[in-house]
# Entry
Amino acid sequence: MENEKKISSKQIERYTVYLKYLIVLKKSNINQITSSEIAKEVKCSEETVRKDLQLITNLATPGVKRDINTLIYDIEEFLGYHEKKNIIIVGCGKLGRALMSYQGFDEYGIKLVAGFDIDPNIVGEKINDIDVYHIDRFKEIIDKYNVKTAVLATRKHCAQELADKLIECGIKSIYNFVPQYLLKAKDDVYIENFDIASSIAFVSSKQNVKEKR
# Structure
């Protein structure tokens, strides 16, 4: 469903949360739900849920149970899960290898087409049946598979340089797994910085606060 209104990253994050919850319900053979029931489960206001859903679906009338399959389809369609998107992973050490071995990308309309590294012991290898290339072949592979998104899982000292090379080759969004390092890019390139350690620390601190109440 087309939508000319600007969607924030927080909203997109909420859509993915809604979708996960709805899929769980579907697997439990639950077929209908209201906005208030979604709001209660995901811990946000009913008004927020209703406004979010109104942007992408007509199924957001207050107090009325709606078809879960239709909601799932509309959210997936909006997020682009029905159109396959090719991605690459740069840095095929322990973290990169774990990401390349992940089996759930297909559920989100994502196809991992290649890995990249500079280590001669890794380049030329296959990880989960995906070829690992030298970074010198960025442009060739990115053009071949029309890749717009890259996952960065390298060492800190080379992260920005590699990000710049990826952007020069046509990458428009980068998911950054480099610990404690914030990438910089032009406004037309989307960067998502993700630090596993700080995320775990955040969750742990939330639990500590909860226990002290």
Summary: Strands lie at 32-33, 66-67, 85-90, 110-117, 126-127, 130-134, 149-152, 173-176, 190-193.
